[in-house]
Amino acid sequence: MSGLSREKRIPITMHCAEVKADREFFATKGHTPMSYCEEVGLLGPRTVLVHMVHLDDGDIAALARTKTSVAHCPTSNAKLASGVCRVPDLQRAGVNVGLGTDGAPCNNTCDMLQEMKLAGIVHKAVSFDPMAVPAEEVLEMATINGAKALGLEEQVGSLEVGKKADFVAVNMKRVGLQPWFSPVSAVVFAATGSDVDLVVVDGKAVVEKGKLMTMDEQEIIAEAQRRSKEVVERAGLNGVVKGRWPLT
User: Fold this and answer.
1) pTM for the structure as a whole
2) Residue 139: C-alpha distances to residues 16, 116, 240, 243 (Å)
3) What is the pLDDT of residue 104?
4) I need a labelling partner for 91 at 20 to 30 A (CA). Which of 26, 49, 131, 236 fits?
């Protein structure tokens, strides 16, 4: 697979070292997560490895040496009790770290703004260092670092002449965002998706005044409710998938 990827210049994205069991499996093969990935040719600048929670120092050095990118998903890692990715150590080693939300079942909102907040606070908590992963680095993880991971940094990821007009405008006049002195800090630590006023993709406005312009939101909601019930029914989990408290 890795050889074909290099031949056809097709990037690879793979979840790796997410839970302790992953590391235990690699150990049965006489490897750490990254020594195994390197042996099979997965590491390199066109590869993005997702989660990457259970790494040792040698794994981090291999990532830096091969210029492999990491997609950090703090909400998923926290909700599934997977652990905390060593983001500060990855950054110090020079590894490109982007930000992801993982899937809806292990995140719920897939709100990149909420993801930024957790990325900005969880590493402070576990390191006892209030300066770890500052707001500016978090915003870079969510923008230009993600573009670099995908090999698109010359096209998107920052506002520059010659790049595509891809950007999000947040309504900083909302009461819940007041007061603020640093717009970056306010966006990272206070804003959520509901504060987004405008989204432009390649010069086209797809969200205006907080309203999705390309699809009917009510139709999407209705279909999501219908499809979710179908999935539960097909899985034979009617009456099982529910909250702990009874609903009347």
Assistant:
1) 0.92
2) 24, 7, 39, 34
3) 87
4) 26
